[in-house]
Design brief:
- The chain is mainly beta.
- The chain has a single domain, classed as Beta Barrel (Lipocalin), CATH 2.40.128.
- It is 12% helix and 46% strand.
- The strands form two sheets. Strands 1, 3, 6, 7, 9, 10, 11, 12, 13 and 14 form a ten-stranded antiparallel beta sheet that branches.
- The protein is elongated, with a radius of gyration of 17 Å.
- It starts with a strand and ends in a 6-residue tail after the last strand.
C-alpha cells in the first residue's frame, strides 16, 4: 500500500493507498503524512493515521479522505495544537479530495508503459472547497498495480482555504511566527487489485 503526498510550507502530506481492478470499484486505504515547516527550514514530520476512499472506474470518479483528528507528529502537545487550533478537527473532522473525469480504463498505459493525464477534482477542507487540476504521470508495474504521480507539486495556501485565522492561532499557541501558509503538495499513489464482495 503506498501513495505519498508531501506538503512542504506549513503542511506536507503523503498518502498511501490501494485499490481494486482497473475496470471496477476500488476501495482505498493507507496513510497521509504531513510535515510542518517552521523557521523557513525546520521540518516537523508527522502523519494522519487514517485514509479512506473509493474509486469507481465505470463512473470515472473517486475520492480519498483523511480524519484530521488523527494527525500525529510524535509530540502529543503539538499534535493537539495542530488538531485543535489549525484543523479545528472537532468542527471539521475530515479533508476530502473528490476526482471526476478519471481516464477510461482502456486509455491507461499497458504494464511497463506510462502516460500523462490531467486529473481534476475538488479539495474540501475546513468548510472550503478548492478546485484542483493535477498533471499526473500514470504507469503500471509488472504486478498490474496502477501508479499515479504528480508531474509537479500542487501549491495550496492557508489563505485560499480560508484558514488565515487558524494559521495565526497555531503560530500564537506554538510560538512559531515563521510557520508558512504555503502548502506545496506532491502525490504518489499505488493502486493494487482488491476482491469485490
Amino acid at each position: 500500500m503506498s501513495a505519498r503526498v508531501a506538503f512542504a510550507g506549513f503542511v506536507a502530506c503523503a498518502l498511501a493507498c490501494q485499490s481494486g481492478m482497473l475496470g471496477g470499484h476500488r476501495e482505498v486505504s493507507g496513510v497521509w503524512r504531513l510535515v510542518g515547516i517552521k523557521n523557513d527550514a525546520v521540518g516537523v514530520p508527522g502523519s494522519f493515521a487514517s485514509l479512506e476512499g473509493a474509486f469507481d472506474a465505470a463512473k470515472r470518479t473517486g475520492f480519498v479522505e483523511v480524519k484530521l483528528g488523527s494527525a500525529e507528529t510524535g509530540n502529543p502537545a503539538r499534535d493537539e495544537n495542530i488538531r485543535a487550533h489549525f484543523f479545528e478537527a472537532l468542527k471539521f473532522p475530515v479533508a476530502r479530495f473528490e476526482v471526476s473525469g478519471l481516464p477510461a480504463p482502456e486509455t491507461l498505459p499497458a504494464p511497463g508503459a506510462s502516460g500523462r493525464f490531467e486529473l481534476a477534482g475538488t479539495l474540501a477542507l475546513h468548510g472550503a472547497s478548492l478546485p484542483l487540476k493535477v498533471s499526473a504521470r500514470v504507469w503500471r508495474d509488472a504486478q498490474n498495480h496502477l501508479h499515479v504521480q504528480d508531474a509537479a507539486p500542487i501549491v495550496l495556501s492557508a489563505h485560499e482555504l480560508g484558514m488565515d485565522a487558524q494559521l495565526a492561532a497555531l503560530k500564537a499557541v506554538c510560538g512559531h511566527e515563521s510557520l508558512s501558509g504555503a502548502i506545496p503538495v506532491e502525490v504518489d499513489l499505488a493502486f493494487a487489485p482488491v476482491a469485490l464482495d
